[in-house]
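Narrative progress, year one. The postdoctoral researcher (J.K.) led the effort to move from monomer predictions toward full complexes, under supervision of the PI. The following entry was the first complex the group processed end to end, covering 570 residues in total.
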Amino acid sequence: MGLQLVLRSGLVAMLLLALPRLAVAIPAFAAQTGEPCSACHIGFPQLTAYGREFKLEGYIAGGMTPELENFAAMSQIGFTQLHDKVPGGLSPDYRDNNAWTIQQTSLFYGGALYAPIGLGAFIQGTFDGVAHQFHWDNTDIRLARPTTIFNKPLFYGFTFNNNPGVTDLWNTPPAWGYPFIPPELAVGNDAETQLASLGQAVAGAGAYAALNVTLNDMVYAEGDLYKSLPNHTAYMLGVGPETSIKGVIPYWRLALQHSWGGSSLEVGTIGLVDNPYPAGFTHGATDQLVDLGVDSQFQWITPDQAYSFQAEFIHESQHWGASYPLGETAKLNDSLNNVTLTASYLLLQKYGITESYNLIDGDADPVLYGAAPISGDANGKPNTDSYTTELDYYPFNQGGPKFFPWANAKLFFEDTFFPRFNGLARNYDGSGRSAQANDVLFTGIWLAF
Amino acid sequence: MRLMLAAMLVAMGGTAWAAGDATAGQAVFGSQCAMCHSATAGVAGIGPSLAGVYGKPAAAGTGYAYSAALKGAHLVWNDATLDKFLTSPQAAVPGTKMPYAGLPDAGQRADVVAYLASISK
């Protein structure tokens, strides 16, 4: 028995080490459930009703304990073309425009850890092909239990995770919201909310509950407490240097969902509070950032068509109690708003089109948002608008080729244009660059196997 | 005496389930089950067809890959097992492929069981 266990463990270890070369891994959840990707996703990664329940109930459906099929891999390969080149290169080691990259290659464990107690996990490790670095990625290990309260079905659970919002069931929070595959070689604007920026820099635990108040109405509530990773841990996990934040970071989520058949309407709120140290400090006075968001998602799904609409608004209150006295901001208090509106249509589980609008709008602060070539703000405002059109083709959404039924792929074409970038349409950086110069076409393939 | 009482309760329960309203059950099936399950024999969706399921061993149908958990549960779908499963699938059979919160109302469960029995004749 002991020898068998050792041999089996050794075999599993050898196969795991061989995963990237042999590509024997398969999309874990599809393999565990025996369902095609379309059962859980509208395209991917948008979740359907089945996908949300699967996640809510701890990733255990169809599984019992870890199997080889619970390991999977994915790769995002794309070509990036900006309207104007970026002098010096799109990124270190990349040309100034028109560049191919394998921007992300990930390994996953997904599925049941021990189904009898409702223990399951989604664990992702990623090689960032732009930064040339391996790092831990989205992780959610959860324990979910069914019960009843007032004769209403209730699923409650506990989670350990590393990204506020990664536990979410809807595709509105930044962790799983649009863009689903952002071009890493594009020029990024210089402001984002804490909800969009703390992923992998923190780790925490929380609890959640989903109560079916009627057969078609669910109330979901979640609360988590995060801590920023210590510097050595951040470097060990490939996300260093540390994001220095004092104390714990409370995160909350409340959502109501009404469903009919496979279709649904969700409205919710989300938020967090953190107290970061000014850059370069790990103790002393802190700033305070408060994110408060509202969101809504609508899905209408038939066997041949799927419509979805997501809307999210996040307001961030910024109190620079430590940074302002140090001269790192021009004002004691600022604010930042983020709006994301996304509409998608999927035909026959194969052909998808998505339109998305994103707005970052904040107070003018010429110290916080200073002029600099390419990345700066000449007028001290972070305001950026973008419109994205995405066309997708999913050849294997209802099942891969016979020799590899769980394989999936997404051929994508994304075109994003910026009417305004970092505050201005023209000469936004003070060095003559226009917002249009950052318009970006990103096309390629997202493989899951 | 206790055994007799228990037997009577089980028998009464069985009577109650058998007395479920298949027509009402069809409506509940339509809103809660039909997104994944067909009532037509041989037509599988995300879940297997439920036509003919009543009275049959669980995970015994063809044309669908059942979970190891359901195969290993060695259930026969009758009033009692269906009632327990519909109350909370993951509690009844941890690891089942059916992620569903459950039908809390005993009357609605009885109706659905009656409907499943009606499409299994």
